[in-house]
Design brief:
Blueprint (H helix, E strand, L loop, with lengths): L1 E4 L4 H12 L4 E5 L7 H10 L5 E3 L5 H10 L4 E4 L6 H6 L1 H21 L4 E7 L22 H19 L4 E7 L1 E3 L18 H9 L6 E4 L11 E2 L1 E3 H17 L2 E7 L5 E2 H12 L5 E4 L8 E2 L4 H7 L7 H12 L4
Helix pairs in contact: 1-2, 1-8, 3-5, 5-6, 7-11, 9-11
Bound molecules: uridine-diphosphate-N-acetylglucosamine.
């Protein structure tokens, strides 16, 4: 069985569905800190199958112990973690405690139960402000906020763990910008409050829940002056986790892969693509740069293609249509 921590969350829920559709048995653990119990029902509907669920926190070692005692777990896909950059700056200790200490608890419990396969959710944020693009996995890493730091610390812990005991099989996945939703319209990203990220914000503006999108900066050294990112469909991203599991099941070691499309789009290109794909207007205005943002960030995803046989298949139009199908108020 595969344990999915944070399995009710945005990427975790999509991955749970894809895993079950591919015939895996899964267990989900989530504390609902940024997700909802109803998502579990939707996962069951889409996968057409049931699974054990634990409402539990990684900081609760007793709960972890119970899960690993009750089930024969072969591998863990570890999504659980806090991910809001601004909040991490305001509450660094909370972020380090949850993300780093939580992961240490998980690794200790895995060790104790002889479970040595892990796929870990890292982020392109570990590259900081890259010197050039596209970004390959051997680029220097740099933490620019406590959230990014927590991801880097965990990567370091996983590397040290593997060096101390080569029985471990670990895959670190560095996500670029996941957007979109399940094509059924049932699963998607539903952040509480006012969204920080571009696509959830666009969707709220398109549906009239927010008046206007602020485009953060139009004077970056990019083709149209707005920030460029590598947006990747959440279903493609989820499928990357299946490939990662396959990879570590046949090959011990520690592997690090970028999961991106290899193509960057500017904020204005995303707005255009969204309007064209959905027929909805997205009123926007140019605003000052957001502190901490970089001009351009996109992946060289060829290592994942060559070594895992994974590549993204869905384009920006699919991402926009699916995001909108999920968010559209019922008519
Ligand atoms: C953000 C995080 C990053 C994290 C990722 C996870 C920050 C500074 N970075 O990445 O660490 O790994 O989310 O999803 O929060 N934009 C606007 N208007 C908006 C929102 C965004 O113009 O209302 C622009 C941004 O300036 C950027 C692009 O859209 O150029 C994408 O922004 P966003 O979706 O927040 O992602 P990142 O900043 O790349």
């Amino acid at each position: 069985m595969i344990l999915i921590t944070g399995g009710a969350g945005y990427i975790g829920s999509h991955t749970a569905v894809e895993l079950m559709m591919a015939g895996h048995e899964v267990i989900i653990m989530d504390n609902f800190s940024n997700s909802k119990p109803q998502t579990l029902e939707l996962i069951r509907t889409l996968a057409g199958k049931n699974f054990p669920f634990y409402e539990a926190d990684m900081l609760d070692t007793t709960a972890l112990e119970e899960i690993f005692t009750r089930h024969k777990i072969e591998a863990v896909i570890h999504f659980a973690g806090f991910k809001a950059v601004g909040e991490s700056v305001a509450q660094p200790v909370l972020y380090y405690h949850n993300n780093v200490a939580g992961t240490i608890n998980l690794l200790q419990t895995m060790s104790k139960h002889g479970v040595t396969q892990m796929v870990f959710s890292s982020s392109a944020t570990v590259y900081g402000n890259p010197q050039t693009v596209p970004i390959t996995e051997d680029f220097p890493v740099a933490a620019v906020n406590p959230y990014g730091s927590s991801k880097l610390m965990i990567e370091q812990i996983l590397n040290d763990l593997y060096n101390s005991d080569p029985q471990w099989r670990i895959c670190i996945l560095r996500y670029f910008n996941p957007i979109g939703a399940h094509p059924s319209g049932l699963l998607g990203e539903d952040p509480n409050g006012i969204p920080n990220n571009l696509m959830p914000y666009i969707v709220k503006v398109a549906s009239g829940q927010l008046p206007v999108l602020n485009v953060f900066g139009s004077d970056y050294p990019t083709a149209d002056g707005t920030g460029v990112r590598d947006y990747i469909h959440v279903v493609d991203l989820s499928l990357g986790h299946l490939k990662a599991l396959q990879k570590i099941s046949v090959e011990p070691g520690i592997h690090t892969y970028n999961l991106g499309t290899g193509r960057g789009y500017s904020v204005l290109e995303v707005i255009d693509a969204f309007e064209a794909a959905t027929g909805q207007k997205v009123p926007y205005q140019i605003a000052p740069r957001r502190p901490g943002d970089i001009a351009e960030c996109y992946a060289d995803p060829s290592k994942a293609r060559v070594e895992m046989g994974w590549q993204a298949a869905r384009n920006l139009t699919d991402m926009c249509m699916d995001a909108w199908r999920f968010a559209r108020p019922a008519v």
